[in-house]
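Lab notebook: predicted structure, single chain.

Context: the supervisor wants predicted structures on file for every construct in the current expression panel, including those that have not yet been purified. This is the next one on the list. No modifications to the sequence; it matches the entry in the shared construct table.
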Amino acid sequence: MAKAGELTEKVVTVAQYVQSGLPCWGAELIPAEDREQQRQKLEQLKAFLEGLQAFNTPGKLKNFSKSTMEIEFQAANLDLIKELEDLNRLVQELTPLTGYLATAAAVLPPHDPWRTEMETVRTEWRAKLMDPAARNAADFCQKINRALTKAKDDYRTAYFNLHKKARLGVNEDGKKKELMKDPRLERLNNWSAYRSCRTQV
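Prediction complete. Output recorded below exactly as produced.
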């Protein structure tokens, strides 16, 4: 019954996912209204699996009294374990990207075009992320990763361009100061002042 012990450990782990709600991108992927039902299913499965561990010899197995219906019912709860494991895996994969993009949005100026584009991406993909039918699609993970990676690359381009403009501004100020100190400009100013005086005379 080593398998039952292994599954029991999984139940304990995924129960923690249910308790946390699996937060991702400012939302919880397990709605509050679903958690209690899922918690109860996991508790029932855990009790069932712990009961199985007592039948660890062929002799004891003869006394196994669970019905086929009870076994099939708990088999459905095993599907819940896989569903929660897959959901947690998705969260772990997306969190570095969504965290990066959230920080990036705070770095750029409020009216930067990238922030508007990012808000569109966030609205579209977070709605799909919250929809079990959409996120269970075979290519969902690939598509959302591609969309977020593109947003990350676009941010880097936007940040680079902004930084480049800022540097150009600093360089232009430096050049202006150098020009103001240029002796030739001083002579030109003196000449202009002299010409002005001559004209007035």
